[in-house]
UniProtKB/TrEMBL annotation:
Protein's name according to its UniProt entry: DNA-binding response regulator, OmpR family, contains REC and winged-helix (WHTH) domain
Boundaries of every OmpR/PhoB-type domain copy: 126-224
InterPro entries (alphabetical): CheY-like_superfamily, OmpR/PhoB-type_DNA-bd, Sig_transdc_resp-reg_C-effctor, Sig_transdc_resp-reg_receiver, UIM_dom, WalR-like, WH-like_DNA-bd_sf
One Gene Ontology cellular component: cytosol
Modification type 4-aspartylphosphate: residues: D52
Annotated region of DNA binding: 126-224
Record Pfam families: Response_reg (PF00072), Trans_reg_C (PF00486)
A GO molecular-function descriptor: phosphorelay response regulator activity
CDD domains named among the record's database cross-references: REC_OmpR, trans_reg_C
PROSITE patterns xrefs: OMPR_PHOB, RESPONSE_REGULATORY, UIM
Native species: Micromonospora marina
GO terms, biological process: regulation of DNA-templated transcription
SUPFAM superfamilies tied to this protein: C-terminal effector domain of the bipartite response regulators, CheY-like
Length: 224
């Protein structure tokens, strides 16, 4: 059974989320602090982690950073804070998505399923693609730069593979939201922040990208 860890200090909200997720068919368990959640994730890894930002002790941003250092489990922020700065900061910390409270459980469940979706596979071996010193192997699930492994999250990898599959073509933010996140509508900041994180990892000069470029008003493309 797919497991979800809910890191939320409000007992009522945490229990309500756990019960609602169990009704959706998940195994759900909770933790009231970041420290408890990180320990539980090490001892019994969940398939998804939901994190509130306002936690006692270690805050949600630092919790996400620690989760990202340990593994690439999909992380979704659940928070009453809907300020653009908070959303961008959470995504830059390594969150895959951001849901504002009150949480609609059907929408949350759909987002979790979309985040777990793997890069589409095709029959037969898939050759690695090269963009200068950048190598993307969808089949092996690897990204290398100058022959050295590049650590990317599951979502970053899906985004990079989607752009590589359409190399040289512009994909709009909405197209990427649909193909990578599985959302027909959504916050396009998800795309922008993840593109920015990828540039920090794959570009020699992220401020002046050579391969992952922006076409103002149109979207992004990956070029050789």
């Amino acid at each position: 059974m797919t497991a979800v860890l809910v890191i939320e200090d409000d007992d009522r909200i945490r229990l309500a989320l756990q019960l609602a997720l169990e009704e959706e068919g998940y195994e759900a368990y909770g933790a009231p602090t970041a420290e408890d959640g990180l320990r539980r994730q090490r001892e019994k890894p969940a398939d998804y982690v939901l994190v509130d930002l306002m936690l006692p002790g270690m805050n949600g941003f630092d919790c996400i950073r620690q989760l990202r250092r340990d593994d690439d489990v999909p992380v979704v922020v659940i928070s009453a804070r809907d300020d653009t700065h908070d959303i961008v900061a959470a995504l830059e910390a390594g969150a895959d998505d951001y849901v504002v409270k009150p949480v609609a459980i059907k929408e949350l469940s759909a987002r979790l399923r979309a985040l777990r979706r793997r890069v589409r596979t095709v029959a037969g071996p898939v050759p690695a693609q090269f963009f200068g010193d950048l190598e993307i192997s969808a089949e092996a699930g690897e990204v290398r730069r100058s022959g050295q492994p590049v650590q990317v999250t599951r979502t970053e990898f899906r985004l990079l593979c989607e752009l590589a599959e359409h190399a040289g073509r512009v994909l709009s933010r909405q197209q990427l939201l649909s193909r990578v996140w599985g959302y027909e509508t959504g916050d396009e900041r998800l795309v922008d922040v993840h593109v920015g994180r990828l540039r920090q990892k794959i570009e020699s000069d992220p401020a002046n990208p050579r391969h992952l470029v922006t076409l103002r008003g149109l979207g992004y493309k990956l070029q050789r």
